[in-house]
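Methods — Computational structure assignment.
A single polypeptide chain was analysed. Its primary sequence is given first, followed by the predicted tertiary structure written as structure tokens.
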Amino acid sequence: MNQTGYTKEVMKHFQKPHNYGRLKKYNGLGKVGNIVCGDVLWLYLNVENKNGKEVIKDVSYETYGCVAAISTSSAISDLAKGKTIENALKINKEQVIKVLGDLPPIKIHCSLLAIDALSEAIYDYLSMGKKPVPGDLREKHQKIERAKQVIEERYKKWTEKEKQK
């Protein structure tokens, strides 16, 4: 690790992020954020049927966040591209961290944000296509949605207080 606490791989992904930008053609979109640190991630998937299997042909993202958020977004885009939906759903934080060589413990949540964005994009793809959604993915989506509602409620209260000033 260098003096910033990041590995060379993290810095490579940050300085030259892979698959950055918005896909022109996508059929799955995952939008996630973390109110505590302010990171926001939109992850786009283009899934195609290949020999009877749903394969992620292309993936890209737009991230507003820190070095770790951008690097983990880049890493997850590399990990997911070319995988079947089933295999992409198995990507975990340890795999993301391994690609990056390591992350400071305080930045591990960034890898979870990237994983959540991938899960949400896959959920979006399956539900929009009226395809069966695995139970564990449905549960994860509901958990993410509940967290979004809490954040929106907190934000609503804050904006009401600001209007009263």
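Note: The radius of gyration is 17 Å.
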